[in-house]
């Protein structure tokens, strides 16, 4: 991992101290595990003597250089947890949340990320799971925000229209990419001009719905139920914003092509309209731009950086060509 990695470095004693500070000074711990897959927050699992199995997440130091959208991400995740759970979205129990300190304590799930076991799940059962996952993800969309955009203290990207907020969100990540000097398949000015022309389509969205925006298979947990696999819960709401519910389908689309219609059926209960499909492509452009920008700040090894940048760039090229850009 390179020196630009921003994930906080904590040991077991640090993690235990944080949980004691949040839940009680007299707590005793029986086991510890650090999750090392992520590149942003630190995450440590702790088993307690009272039987609870918890995860403590810690945000990066506020003094580090972050992408523009990443500021206050822990506060964003906490809001996603609190409002998502209240709406019935399946997520781990929330034990403690301190957005100012950048600390979150939740239950540890029993299952495993879907990507680790999808090869063990029969096709018909996997399609049924995709439909259920789509339906459960729709619970986030039942939550309505006061404004469009990211729910951050500064109010940056918040507005009364979806076009204004979404364009501010995309322009932020384009600013990050320009500062990095990273090449894109089209000139940044051309991308900005194209998106400006989509304001009318974006403003067909009039209700700011909560969007998790990171429901790829690593954030979807499943568990064994006898001889079958069952959906358990979603994790990691740090990319959440208030906007078009259709944007939720971006990460749910990151599956083999034949599985995606089941997710759409569960989420919408019908096929997408032509307008929704075009908006989905706009949101896919946004997440791919984020993935390009991340490569310079996440501390990936050379192979992972190359693979992520290649995939994101190829997806952008395909969508830009379809847009006639």
From TrEMBL:
Residues that span the membrane, as ranges: none
Gene3D superfamilies associated with the record: 3.90.1200.10
Family annotation (InterPro entries): AGP_Transferase, Aminoglycoside_PTrfase, Kinase-like_dom_sf
Superkingdom: Bacteria
Keywords: Kinase, Transferase
Domain Aminoglycoside phosphotransferase span(s) in chain numbering: 35-272
GO molecular function: kinase activity
Cited PANTHER family: AMINOGLYCOSIDE PHOSPHOTRANSFERASE DOMAIN-CONTAINING PROTEIN, AMINOGLYCOSIDE PHOSPHOTRANSFERASE-RELATED-RELATED
Protein name, UniProt field: Fructosamine-3-kinase
Provenance organism: Glycomyces artemisiae
């Amino acid at each position: 991992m390179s020196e630009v990695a921003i994930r906080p470095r904590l040991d077991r004693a640090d993690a235990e101290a944080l949980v004691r500070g949040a839940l009680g000074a007299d707590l005793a711990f029986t086991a510890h595990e650090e999750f090392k897959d992520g590149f942003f927050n630190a995450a440590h699992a702790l088993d307690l003597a009272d039987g609870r199995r918890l995860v403590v997440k810690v945000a990066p130091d506020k003094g580090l250089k972050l992408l523009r959208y990443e500021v206050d991400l822990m506060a964003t995740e906490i809001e996603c947890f609190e409002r998502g759970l209240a709406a019935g979205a399946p997520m781990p129990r929330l034990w403690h949340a301190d957005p100012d300190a950048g600390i979150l304590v939740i239950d540890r799930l029993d299952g495993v990320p879907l990507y680790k076991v999808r090869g063990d799940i029969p096709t018909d059962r996997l399609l049924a799971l995709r439909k259920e996952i789509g339906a459960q993800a729709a619970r986030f969309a039942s939550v309505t925000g006061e404004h469009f955009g990211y729910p951050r203290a500064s109010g940056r990207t918040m507005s009364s229209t979806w076009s204004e907020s979404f364009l501010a969100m995309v322009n932020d990540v384009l600013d990050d990419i320009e500062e990095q000097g990273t090449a894109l398949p089209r000139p940044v000015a051309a991308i900005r001009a194209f998106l400006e022309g989509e304001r009318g389509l974006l403003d067909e969205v009039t209700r700011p719905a909560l969007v998790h925006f990171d429901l790829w298979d690593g954030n979807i947990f499943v568990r064994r139920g006898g001889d079958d696999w069952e959906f358990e819960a979603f994790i990691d709401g740090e990319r959440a914003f208030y906007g078009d519910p259709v944007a939720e389908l971006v990460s749910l689309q990151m599956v083999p092509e034949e599985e995606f219609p089941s997710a759409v059926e569960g989420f919408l209960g019908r096929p997408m309209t032509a307008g929704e499909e075009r908006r989905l492509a706009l949101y896919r452009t946004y997440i791919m731009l984020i993935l390009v920008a991340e490569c310079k700040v996440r501390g990936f090894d050379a192979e992972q950086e190359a693979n992520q940048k290649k995939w994101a760039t190829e997806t952008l090229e395909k969508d830009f060509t379809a847009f006639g850009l």
